[in-house]
Design goal:
Elements: H1 10-14, H2 22-31, E1 33-35, E2 40-45, E3 48-53, H3 54-61, H4 77-86, H5 91-112, H6 118-127, H7 175-188, H8 192-195, E4 201-206, E5 210-212, E6 215-217, E7 219-224, E8 229-234
């Protein structure tokens, strides 16, 4: 109910604080009682007794201050359900919409970042090296912040970068080295839609290197954005990451 009351005058009163733990909200409701003579609502919050006048409470909600009281027992269950529906809330519909939005988001990301296959790498990296991606694909935001960094998907040519000591001196035209290199990426990289991010990497942990198919790989744990969302990646994910990262 609180989530959908944002469309009503209650929005200001309910969003003064960024978040209110449900345990405190429940405590306030369960301990609240109204003193008719003084027109004051007494309740407890965070184990402290406090109160608010009816006039101030109604003003915060953007309502007038009626003199009469409403008997809760006079409100039928049908009326309560109707009230929730008027607030644009339907639990089943909300769940279905959330699931649909998630599918649309996933499909959008999949279309923006199709999987890298050997055929695609050879076509866009070797056969047609003029293809570059230095253009926005998800966001046109101009402010480079930790939660919305510049949107510049990396150029496919990064798949040729010799980031391993074993092949650092091999020419870019060496077919066998490239095939081994590309196979490593295809076999061990995560989908680009999981790696590329608008959230800026703010911290990183590096773990011990390990050998994979004759190449030395390294595992990392990154922390993205202001809330420091954790994500794991390896050297195999480098070509698919945001260049800012």
């Amino acid at each position: 109910m609180i989530e959908y009351l944002r469309f009503l005058p209650l929005d200001q009163a309910l969003t003064i604080a960024e978040s209110i733990p449900l345990i405190h909200l429940s405590k306030e409701f369960s301990t609240a009682y109204y003193v008719l003579v003084d027109k004051v609502i007494n309740f407890e919050v965070n184990s402290r007794k406090t109160s608010i006048t009816k006039a101030r409470f109604c003003k915060m909600l953007g309502f007038g201050m009626p003199d009469g009281l409403v008997d809760p027992n006079s409100i039928s269950l049908v009326d309560l359900i109707h009230m929730f529906n008027q607030l644009a809330y339907n639990e089943l519909e909300a769940q279905e919409k959330e699931a649909m939005d998630a599918k649309v988001t996933l499909k959008t990301h999949e279309s923006l970042f199709p999987p890298w296959t050997m055929e695609r790498i050879l076509n866009e990296v070797v056969n047609n090296p003029i293809l570059h991606w230095f253009k926005p694909m998800v966001s046109f935001e101009l402010v480079n912040s930790v939660d919305s960094q510049f949107d510049f998907p990396v150029t496919p040519r990064s798949f040729l970068f010799r980031c391993f000591e074993q092949i650092e001196k091999a020419p870019l035209s060496d077919y066998h080295v490239n095939h081994k290199f590309f196979s490593f990426y295809i076999n061990y990289e995560k989908p680009q839609l999981q790696i590329w991010s608008l959230q800026m990497m703010v911290a990183i942990k590096v773990y011990a290197p390990f050998s994979v198919d004759g190449l030395i790989n390294v595992k990392f744990k990154g922390y993205k954005g202001s809330i420091r969302t954790e994500f794991d990646f390896t050297l195999a994910n480098l070509p698919c990451m945001n260049p800012n990262d």
